[in-house]
Amino acid sequence: MNKKSDKSGKKNSQLVLRLDKDERDAFVDLCKKLDTSAAREIRGFIRTFMKENKE
């Protein structure tokens, strides 16, 4: 059976977090001004954090 790799670029999981609405809105607005998305920036943070704290 030929299955596509999990590295196909498709996201298959979610992380739900709670934060202040004003803080969330300011973050999303800033991301838009910087021509990026909140999700992209959070994914980047997670990857960097994991790389820096790898055991």
Strand content: under 5%
The average pLDDT is 89
Q: What is the assembly state of the chains in this entry?
A: single chain
Low-confidence stretches: none
Largest sheet: none
Explain what the structure shows.
The protein is built from 2 helices and no strands. The chain has a domain at 19-55. It is mostly helical and 55 residues long. 51% of the residues lie in helices and 0% in strands. The chain is globular. It has helices spanning 21-33, 38-52. The mean pLDDT is 89.
Features:
mainly alpha; 2 helices; 51% helix
Précis, in short:
This protein is mainly α.
Mind sketching the topology for me?
Elements: H1 21-33, H2 38-52
